[in-house]
Amino acid sequence: MSHTTFAEPQTERLHGRAGTRLARVEECMVGLFDRLDRVFARDAAWAAAVAAALTLQFTLIFHHKPWLDEWQALQIAVQSPTLAELLHNLRYEGHPPLWYLVLRCLATILGNPFIALPMAAAIFAGMTQGAILFAAPFRRLDRLMLATSELVLFEFMTISRSMTMGCAFAILAIALWRRGRWSWLFIALLPLCDFLFGVISLAFVYLRWRERRLAYVPPVVWGISGVVSAWMVRPMPDIVPALGSKGLLLGTAIWASNLSTLGLPWQGIAFRPEWNSPPPLLFGGLALGAFIAVCWRETRGRRDDALLVGGMLALTWVFSLAVYPLAIRHLMLVALLLVLLVWRRVAAGEPMPSVGFRSWLLVLSACGLATSVIAFAMPFHNAEAAAREIDRLGLRDKDWMTFPQSSAQGISALTGILFERTSDSCVQDFVRWNHSTDKRTEQPDGLYRDLARKMKSDGRFYLVTDRYLPHRPSFVEQIAEIPAGYDGEFFGLYVVGKTLPESTARHPRCNGPANPLPPDHAPRPIRNS
Asked: Which range has the worst mean pLDDT, 34-38, 254-258, 446-450, 478-482?
């Protein structure tokens, strides 16, 4: 008997055992979901769960401490003197204008620009959670798990940015799918939110065409929206991406690692929570396989759904290689698209999601609730603590430099300090992405040479950075360190040239004319005594 024929019965037995174990696990999950479904079938339990989910969502929003991207959007929206200046600034951002116009309007109406971010998130979160909890065609338990998933509860709805608005519009477009005109309204608005939401809107248009429900006027309006969006964010000639491409092998590895978070959205380094960090390699590999399996199961036999999910995966991979690596928050739109396609399918009268899909929602919900605990236990971003420390040391009116250029974004928004960019004799509050940091400066020796150059020409000044400075020279002395929040960014405060006279240098702005944010409205924790 050949070796091959001898191995076949053993292989079949192994497959049979694995299949039996999988069937037992699936049977256990079915039993668990049946029991939970019976609990939420009671109206009192369901009403209590909905109230708790909504309370948690809005509490998270108003407890959240903004980070770089959120401050950047608010500052551009509010500080741009005119709409023309705002649109000009967006050509360095690569983002359509709708989110910035919403923030600008809310800041004007509320009279306090610092409330605009949480209010915008609350408005769109109310729309999104209302559609999920009251209009989704899923079982009550599935709706609750989706509403409390890490993707929806925290990533899209707590962190306030254009993805918050885009997620709301995408879900409303699907919720109103059978009410054509209202659905088309949100489909047409999606390109004005973000490039990837424009891709999702294209998927919706394709599905409309496949359903032979493609009227004449709505696609024209959608096309105009897309063209206007693209025209308004056409890049400036001197724009420099914040991140660079990493090559085929490393870029693919980063993409796959980040994609694994869609299967297990626990973001941290080992067991230490840290946002925007994928799961450890072993767990990440299992999570990625599980997510791909869920995608395969829910699109099997549905050519259009498989084409759209596969196309979105391929697009994010190509973009990550050719332009810059997409972060976890961007790749989560693949998961959102899968949910939307299942929503549309079930609303059309097809079977409810599989036990695998429900198990995935259960994992997302568990991670969402765990992330909520982390969000209440530690600040998301610690710029307020850094600003408080600068005030305590009496250094708000001194000459400051930042490295990298975006490190002091939140501090600048809260204090009004204009930070000088390394290797550039200009100051900024929000970032204009037209400055490529000298590769020499990215190494400690290069940074120290720039600090020495400024010290010799200007005198004593101060530095804020989120990089550790090993073996720093004697003229660079640390005066404070603010620990990192959930986003992983700490703040190191340094004095450079302590023995020299105080710098009185005044440099032009890096990012054009801008109105200052009103300091009397800035959130300020109670100072340490």
From this structure: 446-450
How many Å apart are CA 350 and CA 372, to the nearest integer?
Answer: 34
Residue matched to tokens 């724009």: 239
CA distance 184 to 180: 6
CB under 8 Å to 69, separation ≥6 — which residues?
A: 161
Considering the entire predicted model, what is its pTM? 0.92
What's the rounded Cα separation, in Å, for the pair 449 and 512? 27
pLDDT for res 3 = 46
- For 208, phi and psi rounded to 5 degrees? -60, -40
How far are the Cα atoms of 369, 461, 463 from residue 498, in angstroms, in the given order? 47, 8, 12
Q: Contact at 8 Å (CB) between 489 and 385?
A: no
- Tally the residues of the chain: 529
pLDDT digits (tens, 9 = 90+) for 214-252: 888 899 999 999 999 999 989 998 888 777 778 899 999
Distance CA 216, CA 228 (A): 19
8-state DSSP, 408: T
Angle at 489 between CA 432 and CA 270, to 5 degrees: 135
Burial pattern 204-231, b for ≥16 Cβ within 10 A else e, equals bbebbeeeeeeeeebbeebeebbeebee
| Strand 400-403 versus strand 272-273 pairing type | unpaired
Domain segments of the chain as ranges: 46-377, 383-521
Nearest-angstrom CA–CA distance, 337 and 199: 10
- Per DSSP, 476 falls in state E
When pLDDT is cut at 50, 70 and 90, the band that residue 57 belongs to is very high
Cα–Cα distance, 29 to 20 (Å, whole number): 14
CA separation for the pair 203, 208 (Å, rounded)? 9
One-letter amino acid of 335: A
Task: Please tell me what DSSP assigns to residue 464.
Answer: E
Over residues 518-526, mean pLDDT: 68
Residue in this structure with the two tokens 């979105």, named with its chain if needed: 312
Cα 350 to Cα 208, 309, 343: the distances in Å are 18, 19, 10
pLDDT band at 11 (very low <50, low <70, confident <90, very high): very low
Q: How far from the centroid of its chain's Cα atoms is residue 431's Cα?
A: 18
Q: One-letter amino acid identity for 164?
A: T
Q: At residue 200, does pLDDT exceed 90?
A: yes
Residues 6+ apart with CB under 8 A from 72: 93, 406, 409, 430, 431
The angle that helices 98-110 and 162-175 make with each other, rounded to 10 degrees, is: 110
